[in-house]
């Protein structure tokens, strides 16, 4: 188990623990005599907003209010977004491939992202790509089946059709604990366990990139990481032995063809 201590091998352990956390919260709330309003007042549960139907969202799209004269000026922005999304999607697929430890059909994965973005745009959504953290989280559950994808899709479809606000009933610590769980897993894997797999120079570049992203921002941290990798390459190349070219003549007599 990589030195992390004993792990539960059951595939239902993690989902059961996730369902038990909010359930125990409401049990404790009931035993303490508190109400949902009290939990919201103390910040344990978020405020519930008024729900609307999905059809009402389309009423916000009024093409008569669009400034078509400024659309040509957005061409460069669109191209930039295309490049960023394509590059980001490629990085997501590569990161997932590394975490799984086996090759993926990259063209198939990128095609899926493309069709997903087309459907999202036609239905009023935003551009997007794979959610790396969710993919890694599902992989940690050991449920390697398409049932997870179908369950997630049907659940989100039900939430879209529901006019209520589900986030107004889920304890806020549930979201925080899930993010902390994924963060700890990734940090243990890519900052601790990977130390024995990388040369000291590459591991130093990894640490510099990690610290730079947390100190500055994602974009600036990535640029600093690339600069550190380039600097390391220059140092390694400079340490190589100089290659001398010499012209040599062969004394072997070969018969004419």
Automatic annotation (TrEMBL):
It is found in: Membrane. Pfam families: Sulfate_transp (PF00916). Residues 62-208 form the SLC26A/SulP transporter domain. It comes from the Eukaryota. GO terms for cellular component: membrane. InterPro entries: Membrane-Transporter-like, SLC26A/SulP_dom. It is a multi-pass membrane protein. Keywords: Membrane, Transmembrane, Transmembrane helix. The chain crosses the membrane at residues 12-31, 75-98, 110-132, 167-188, 200-216. PANTHER family: SLC26A_SULP TRANSPORTER DOMAIN-CONTAINING PROTEIN, SULFATE TRANSPORTER YBAR-RELATED. This is SLC26A/SulP transporter domain-containing protein. It comes from Heterosigma akashiwo. The lineage of its organism: Eukaryota, Sar, Stramenopiles, Ochrophyta, Raphidophyceae.
């Amino acid at each position: 188990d990589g030195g992390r201590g004993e792990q539960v091998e059951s595939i239902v352990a993690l989902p059961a623990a996730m369902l038990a956390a909010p359930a125990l919260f409401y049990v404790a709330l009931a035993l303490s005599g508190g109400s949902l309003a009290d939990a919201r007042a103390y910040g344990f549960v978020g405020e519930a907003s008024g729900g609307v139907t999905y059809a009402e969202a389309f009423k916000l799209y009024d093409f008569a209010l669009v400034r078509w004269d400024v659309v040509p000026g957005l061409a460069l922005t669109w191209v930039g977004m295309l490049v960023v999304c394509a590059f980001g999607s490629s990085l997501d697929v590569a990161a997932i491939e590394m975490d799984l430890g086996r090759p993926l059909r990259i063209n198939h994965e990128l095609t899926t992202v493309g069709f997903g973005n087309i459907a999202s745009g036609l239905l009023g959504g935003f551009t997007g790509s794979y959610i790396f953290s969710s993919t890694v989280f599902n992989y940690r559950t050991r449920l390697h089946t398409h049932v997870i994808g179908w369950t997630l899709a049907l659940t989100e479809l039900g939430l879209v059709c529901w006019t209520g606000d589900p986030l107004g009933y889920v304890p806020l610590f549930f979201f925080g604990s899930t993010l902390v769980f994924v963060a700890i897993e990734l940090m243990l894997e890519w900052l601790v366990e990977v130390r024995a797999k990388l040369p000291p120079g590459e591991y130093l570049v990894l640490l510099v990139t990690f610290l730079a992203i947390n100190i500055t921002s994602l974009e600036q941290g990535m640029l600093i990481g690339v600069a550190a990798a380039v600097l390391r390459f220059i140092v390694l190349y400079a340490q190589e032995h100089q290659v001398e070219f010499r012209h040599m003549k062969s004394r072997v007599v070969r018969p004419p063809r």
